[in-house]
Amino acid sequence: MPVRRRRTARPLPALPAEHCAAKSRPDGHPGTTVIEHCEEVGRVAEALVALLPDRVQGLLGASPATVAALHDVGKVSPGYQFKYFADELVARVPELRGWNRSSFEDRHATISEIALRAYLEARGRDITAARVAGAHHGVRVEAPSFREGDEVLGGQAWARERARVIERLEQVFGPVSSEDVVQPDVLAGLVCVADWIGSDERFFPPEGVAEEAGDREGGRMDTSLQARARRAVAACGWESVAVRPGLSFEEVFGFPPRAMQRDFISFVNGPGLYVLEAPMGLGKTEAALFAAYQLMAAGHHHGIYFGLPTRLTSDRIHERVRRFVERIVEGDSPVRLAHGDFWLRAFERGGEEFGAGRSWFRPSKRALLMPFAVGTIDQALLSVIKVKHHFVRSFGLAGKVVILDEVHSYDVYTGTLLDLLVRRLLEIGCTVIVLSATLTRARRAGLLPDIGLDAPGNGYPLTTREAGGVLSQLESLPPPDTPVSLSFASSSGFDLGTLAVEKALDRHCVLCVANTVAQAQRWYNEIKACMPAGAFDCGLLHAKFPPWRREALENLWMTRLGKHGDRRRGCVLVATQVVEQSVDIDADLMITDLAPTDMLLQRLGRLWRHRREDRPCAGPEAVVVAPLDPRFEQVEDLAEVFGKANSRVYDPYVLWRTLQVWRDRTVVRLPGDIRGLLEATYATPERPLPACVESARQRLETRRERLRRLAAAARSDVLGFGVQRDDERAATRYNDYPTIGAVLARSAECTRYRAVLELSDRTQVEVERHRPDPRASARLHANLVTIPAYRLRGARTPEFFCSHFHDDTVLLVMDETGDLLLDGRPTGLRYDDERGLQLAAGQTALEDVRAGRWTESLAYTDYDEDYDEDGLDGFEW
Question: Which of 135, 341, 752, 835 shows the greatest Cβ crowding within 10 Å of its Cβ?
């Protein structure tokens, strides 16, 4: 380990700031100087701020462009110059010859913070700008106790050069004034984005700017730095939105509003928090979107982020939001998908979206910066978690209308983070609209921490508004009840295949919803075994298909069971929770595993969603598969009674409580029974429980409290130190089971650094260790599935995948039977396009049970990511 040199007798001379380089040319020689780059970033920040609404500008203080310009002052240091331009530094400052670069601190963001703090403290000013500068790479690094002028930073001569740069930039952009900064993290997000754009060499080449084509003023080219910054910002997709005024609901959506929609729209009269509770299929999405339009038209907000629980739901809502945006804005304002797989779709369309911004930000994150975006809740949750760039997300969301759908579906961990997010969004100038069909009073109270259970409304539909600390509520006239015939079937003796086939042959559209992938596959096999060949359509849908196949299945079944689907003959779709919510499918009969009350109600919401004249039955029907006579003596017996796989997905106590509330019912009236069923399930029991059930309830409460603490520990501090990767899968959901990605291939010719693959979709790609290929990456990701990590214990990413994946990802190759091999060895898994990923023939879960894992390898709740969303309340055995 190199040893720092002792302090020299004579002060170390400094390289004049005008000669300190920030960027290198293509030939490796110094290019753009620190001062030039700082001015470019400052001008980009000016262009960005000019496009922000007053509501957001007011959060940034009086001198956001100055703060942005000062971000790289720390590059005026021997450590940074040695790191990248050692030859040029020694040539200009011969006294540094023989010095080891490790003698100096080289983290320039840290040096920027130290230099700015010293400069501002010496003048009695607030030091927020210094902390922002220290975070401009996405996270503040906890620096040693260095002081400006220390030899490790270059001594007094280099400190004077940094001070000169600060003074010069203040002359250009104005004095640093951060005392009036309302939201430092939003300011930090602005600085990050300005730096990314200001570092884009398409607009700011390190060798200087040649003759440009672009803006012309008065017939002459405007070649000023300000004009170049404006062009760069526009080219990166940043734009102001012109909203068409005075549109009616019917002009926007093509149909008149329902009573609930009219009530909600009239109730949303300004910024604040709105919680809309209304039945499934009543038009909450359109009500929220039109309310957002009115807030934008009134000048309160400048964009919308629509967050949903899963990727399937966000994919499906995207098209509806896109049509909505086309009707309300002047010109072209594309709606971006913001979840992690969006960039795959960009390549499917030719790579235009991805190519424009790849050099400075991945599109899944950049989407939050656009005026309109649809994605998973995870992308917004990352703004309140200790991850890199969390404040960039705050900046992207600031001042928008944020719509959060299906809030009931989150576990305690994610739900706690969601409560933090709602409060954070209100602080940064957002209006938050929360939508739910099955929200309990306690869950509503969590969203209203300053008001809590003083929000007593029990109507349904119900809108709760909190603005300026004032609470108000509005009850709407409920729609007529739809009675759903309800029956229970024993989980041990029920012949699901016979019932489903019988009904499908009688023109029923049957939807079977299983709690796990493995159960769904078993049900599908039962139905296929007893149905006449070709008698009706029968399909399987879950998250253990690779994306290319899953998208094809989704498109097929969302059309087949959609509003305009072909109902001339029956069909059967076997699925998991991916069809549970925010999906417009319409069935006549549902067969479902027992699940918590809110999940059962959501599943029942897929029945008779549309008015039809040619139904094969007098009313919708549902069959719940459950243990009808649960017997147990010990708390551990509950998991046996409800099935260990189900008990891994959903807490056994909640399943027991749900069964007590539902088992004697023969009819459920929707929406009339929703409130009563929810409160009866989740309220604290009034009577003493059997001892083992009480033990199960106590375990549940202990686990919930632990998850709350974990969520609180994950919360980000303003400009705090990030501790996690910026990865939506790792930070926003709590999962007891680590997973690993696996690319599925039909054949492979591999060496250590190169592979030629025929993927599961029968496309061919060639990948190499040191050759990034975005189109190949897109194809690989389209053939990717996640697998429990213990199934592939010790597996590591092959060298030829290293340019294509950030996380551990392996290659699994199918043999002639479909069994999946890892490096030629059996994995106990197989794949086919009909059933997806499954246990290989002859494999059982017995080994997993004996090892204490007690669940089949694919027995996960199926919310797209293998996140145990409601099963997070399950026991840890």
Answer: 135
Helix (H, G, I), strand (E, B) or coil at 250: helix
Q: How many domains does the chain have?
A: 4
Out of 459, 475, 491, a domain closes at 475
Sheet bearing 401-404, strands edge to edge: 336-337, 372-376, 304-308, 401-404, 431-436, 273-277, 462-467, 470-475
Are 526 and 383 contained in the same domain? no
pLDDT at 509 over 50: yes
Cα separation, 249 vs 328, in Å, equals 11
The pLDDT tens digits of the residues spanning 465-498 come to 998 888 899 999 988 999 999 999 988 778 899 9
Residue ending a domain, among 573, 604, 629, is 629
Render pLDDT for 738-780 as a digit per residue (tens, 0 to 9): 778 899 999 999 999 999 999 999 999 999 888 878 788 888 9
Secondary structure letter of residue 684 according to DSSP: P
| pTM of the model as a whole | 0.83
**Judgement on whether residues 113 and 228 belong to the same structural domain of the protein:** yes
Q: What is the predicted pLDDT for the residue at 724?
A: 46
The verdict on residue 718 lying in a domain is no
CA distances from 662 to 516, 623, 674, 722, 780 (A): 21, 12, 12, 46, 45
Residues 380 and 525 in one domain: no
Q: What is the CATH number of the domain that holds 199?
A: 1.10.3210.30
Measured CA to CA, the distance from residue 327 to residue 253 in angstroms comes to 9
CB 349 within 8 A of CB 325: no
Q: How far is CA 865 from CA 363, 769, 784, 873, in A?
A: 19, 27, 12, 17
Amino acid at 325: V
Identify whether 1 is part of a domain: no
Give the CATH number for residue 459.
Answer: 3.40.50.300
Do 288 and 353 fall within a single domain? Answer: yes
- Give, in degrees to the nearest 5, the angle at Cα 430 between 381 and 863: 30
- Sort residue 138 into left (φ over 0), alpha (ψ -120 to 50) or beta: left
Look up residue 679 and give its amino acid.
E
- Verify that 499 and 430 share a domain, yes or no: no
Residues 197, 126 share a domain: yes
pLDDT in tens, 793-847: 778 889 888 878 777 899 999 999 999 999 999 999 999 999 999 987 655 443 4
Residue 35 near residue 161 (C-beta atoms within 8 A): no
Nearest one of 726, 869, 716, 873 to 807, comparing CA atoms: 726
Let me know whether 488 and 466 are in one domain.
Answer: no
Residue 671 in domain: no
Q: What are phi and psi of 481, to 5 degrees?
A: -65, 140
Nearest partner of 79 among 37, 112, 51, 39, judged by Cα: 112
Q: Is residue 640 part of a domain?
A: no
The two three-digit tokens of residue 779, written as one number: 């194809």
- Residue 536 belongs to domain spanning: 483-629
Closest CA to 316 of 586, 585, 583: 583
Q: How many residues does the chain have?
A: 877
DSSP string, 466-483: EETTEEEEEE-PPPPPEE
| Residues 397, 399, 401, 402, CA torsion sign | positive
